[in-house]
Amino acid sequence: MPDRMRAADSWRPALLTAAAAVAIPVIAAILVVAAVTQDAGWATLRAGVRVWLVAIGAGLHIGETSISLVPLGGVLAAGAIAAAVAARQAHRDTPDAVVFGAVAGAGAGVLAATLSAATSVGSIGTSFVRAAFGAFVVVGVSAAIAVAIRVPGSFRLPAWSAPMLPAVRAGIRAGALILGYAATLVAVLAAFQVRRAGDLWAALDPGIGGGVALALVSLMSLPTIVAWASAALIGPGFALGTDTSVSMTGVDVAALPAFPPLAVIPSPGPFPDLVVVLMVVPVLLAGCAGWRWVAVPADTSLWTRVALGAGAGAVAGVIVGLVAATGRGAVGPGLLADVGPPILSTAGIAIVSWALAGAIGGALGHYRGLRADQE
Q1: Distances in Å between the alpha carbon of 165 and those of 137, 296, 315?
Q2: How far apart are the first and last CA of the chain?
Q3: Are residues 259 and 145 in the same domain?
Q4: Domain boundary among 93, 127, 156
Q5: 351 with 205, same domain?
Q6: 133 with 183, same domain?
Q7: 132 and 84 part of one domain
Q8: For residue 37, which of 45, 49, 25, 27 has the smallest C-alpha distance?
Q9: Rg value, the chain, Cα
């Protein structure tokens, strides 16, 4: 009996996390939809549930129109809620953060698939497969990270991964800085386009309820715009419709929807040659990861430093490439049926070029250390 009680105690917090991580954002979404529509019927209930499902990447189809873009802002919001719930549910006796996250993610996935099936009516619905997978990843990963932070002993890396940890840590640092750099560029562009965004808002004239909804959607869209900026910094850029492109060389888009956050997209035409220099910063950060941020003993061999530096750059490329990939999909008919960067080329260029920069940085760091020892 005591063993059964301990087993139940180890599963219960994870399952409660799954239930709360789904219920809290779903209820919040329903309340927002009800406030905007001034209606509390079944249609509002279904719409609120669909808002959360779309936020975790379930997509949405309305007749022939499809929304397949994963809204990064929604993913971050849902993940933050799941992490907060998991941190409260975890206790010092939680044995394994990964198992906790897997159980919480599986529970959330089952709930999401059920809600997707229940709210798919007629020609309007979401993909229950994507709903289950999205909830599993968002809730599971967020819960595992929260538990690992709350209960440090609950996350233990295998012994074989120890030699790679310096490169992983340096790569995560470089990837975070590159994303921060992309976000800074977006903020600068937004500061110069405030008036243009205000004009778009005024043209839409959303009213009070619609204004609240538009403000929330605009806020949630900003991480996706940062993902697009990351793709532009990597090189391939991104599309805003068929046969369109936005890159560091210029903008080739005939017209954009009247959506205020899109005001940050510069006017069509080529950019000055100097703008391309902005693409050098991510490469330098990847090189710096191999040069200074890979923590290894002073007597580490040259080839080990080069390998760790390349690994750090590759990790940064994987992180930024994955973020950029979330900006690929469809967000409506017509122009917005094809938006975002080319996934394979964007991720491939980031991983290969930044791994090379990290390897060069690792070699420079090795000789820098030798010179310091000689002095």
Answers
A1: 23, 10, 11
A2: 68
A3: no
A4: 156
A5: yes
A6: no
A7: yes
A8: 45
A9: 23
CA distances from 99 to 7, 64, 102, 154, 190 (A): 13, 40, 5, 10, 42
Segment 103-116, tens digit of pLDDT? 999 999 999 999 99
Q: Which domain holds residue 226?
A: 163-374
Whole-angstrom Cα distance, residue 266 to residue 60? 29
Q: Are residues 200 and 282 in the same domain?
A: yes
Pair (141, 116) in one structural domain: yes
Which of 121, 139, 156 is the C-terminal boundary of a domain? 156
Q: Within this chain, do residues 177 and 135 fall inside the same structural domain, yes or no?
A: no
How many structural domains are present in the chain? 2
Cα–Cα distance list, 101 to 77, 97, 116, 132, 146 (Å): 17, 6, 22, 15, 9
The answer to whether residues 339 and 238 touch, using CB atoms and an 8 Å cutoff, is yes
Q: CB of 136 within 8 A of CB of 108?
A: yes
371: pLDDT strictly greater than 60? no
Distance CA(344)–CA(352), nearest Å, equals 12
What global pTM score does this model have?
A: 0.88
For the stretch 164-216, pLDDT in tens is 888 999 999 999 999 999 999 999 999 988 888 888 888 887 777 778 888 88
Q: What are phi and psi of 240, to 5 degrees?
A: -125, 50
Count, in order, helices (H) and strands (E) of the chain.
11, 8
**Mean pLDDT (whole number) for 83-110:** 90
- The enclosing H or E element of 60 equals strand 60-62
Mean pLDDT of 339-353: 93
Residue 10 banded pLDDT, cuts 50, 70, 90: low
Residues counted in the chain: 375
Structure tokens at 137: 């990843």
Q: Tokens 């936020």 correspond to what residue?
A: 55
* Plot region of 294 (φ>0 → left; ψ -120 to 50 → alpha; else → beta): beta
Q: Report whether 357 contacts 283 (CB < 8 A).
A: yes
Looking at the fold, whether 69 and 206 belong to one and the same domain comes out as no
pLDDT at 52: 94
Closest to 110 (Cα-Cα) out of 74, 148, 136: 136
**How deeply is 113 buried, as exposed, middle or buried, from its count of CB atoms within 10 A (0-12, 13-18, 19+)?**
buried
- Neighbouring C-beta atoms of residue 44, cutoff 10 Å: 18
Nearest CA to 279 among 221, 354, 188? 354
